[in-house]
Amino acid sequence: MLLAVLLVLLLGACQPAPAQPAPASLAIMNGALWDGSQLIADGVVILRGNRIEAAGPAGTTPIPADARIVDAGGGTILPGLIDGHVHNAAEPEIRRKFLEAGVTSVCDTGAGAVQLRQYQNPQEGLPAARAYFAGPFLSAPGGYPADTDDSARLGVGTPEEARQAVQQLAAGGADFIKVALDDGRSDEPLPVLSTEVLQAVTDEAHRLGLTVRAHVLDVRYLDAALDAGVDAIEHIPAPELSRQVFELWMQRDLPLPLPRAYLDELQRLAGRQIPLTPTIEVLERRTCNAVARSEKERTACVRVYIEALRQYRLLGGLIALGSDYGSAGMAAGLPWREMEFMQQAGWSNAQILTAATSNAARACGQAGEIGSLQPGYLADLIIVDGNPLEDLTALQRVLTVVLNGQIVIGD
Domain 25-78+373-409 belongs to what topology? Predict the structure, then answer.
């Protein structure tokens, strides 16, 4: 009897597990499709579970028999937008506002300990934009940011400390690493990471498969970031913003030539083909407001940044969208003013859409996961009323938001 029981148990253990039913699929159709690289006049996107199964022309993309049909109503289907540079967006209520505006992902480029705990232990409730985070800045001991508590900064003074800090952040779940190359631009400069320490950060991060993003407001530190092999630059570094520069720009309607040495630095950045997140809105609110003595000077300051971004475009550079929400009083939602600055600098609607999708995903270390409608990517997408390639304001008319394969806003 015992032998018979053992035989039955053994045979049962050898049987294959019952097949699990495939997750239901969604077929989104009756709309134009911008998959991240091309516009298809009549497109279809097939979602299964939380991933994209197929995307392409309606005539050649089979619809699964079990698919629930979602009518795009003649709008445009495109990847969920990404705000690639935010702060203090851990609260679900804040990320809900981003989601309602079609921003399905945000990337926190400098979260302190409290924000990290909130990200790692999300509250139950309404769906909110998914979040990726860097954790605290890696900076020189006593370095940038100086106007905050130590929880927002990890000081590293030696290569070994740098490696340990990267390992600590990786173990804590950081999605990418953020380094600060900023001396505070004051009469008493803050300490800045040495080249050896910066190199140790990037080497260790890359060994662990993490992207490194460098905060660079002064063009003098751009070489150090590029030499170390960082993967993205935060903020467009400024040329000299002296009183004489303001006076010259206020006297001219047309942009003035930027210094040759400055353009050479932008050329080097453009040549690396790594994303630059300009964040001109926060530079307008902080830098320009701080140094300008009048509204004319403030306007001239913003024009300098726009001209720098225009020149960077002419040099063939890449941009990623990021608002710097949480650091200068911007509202949560679509980073529309940042998009307007990109338009003023001559970037096309297609380039701006790419900045807000695949380029922002790359800056956040999420290339291959979000930012495009391709098989295998996370099923985050939006439907808007109109064609944003022709009229970017269509992004302000969000009809439907799909997050993780689920319709969370709209029918």
Answer: Urease, subunit C; domain 1 (2.30.40)
Per-residue confidence of the chain (411 residues) as pLDDT tens digits? 444 444 434 444 444 544 455 568 999 999 999 999 999 999 999 999 999 999 999 999 999 999 999 999 999 999 999 999 999 898 899 999 999 999 999 999 987 655 666 666 666 678 999 999 998 999 999 999 876 666 778 999 999 999 999 999 999 889 999 999 999 877 789 999 999 999 999 999 999 999 999 999 999 999 999 999 999 999 999 887 666 776 777 777 777 888 899 999 999 999 999 999 999 999 999 888 887 788 888 888 899 999 999 999 999 999 999 999 998 889 999 999 999 999 999 999 999 999 999 999 999 999 999 999 999 999 999 999 999 999 999 999 999 999 999 999 997
What is this structure's pTM?
A: 0.91
* Whole-number Å distance between alpha carbons of 303 and 283: 11
Per domain, the residue ranges of the chain are: 25-78+373-409, 81-362
> Domain spanning 81-362: which CATH class is it, in words?
alpha beta
Buried b / exposed e over 239-271, threshold 16 CB at 10 Å, is bebeeebbeebeeeeeeeebeeebbebbeebbe
Angle between helices 295-314 and 336-344 (to 10 degrees): 70
Amino acid at 176: F
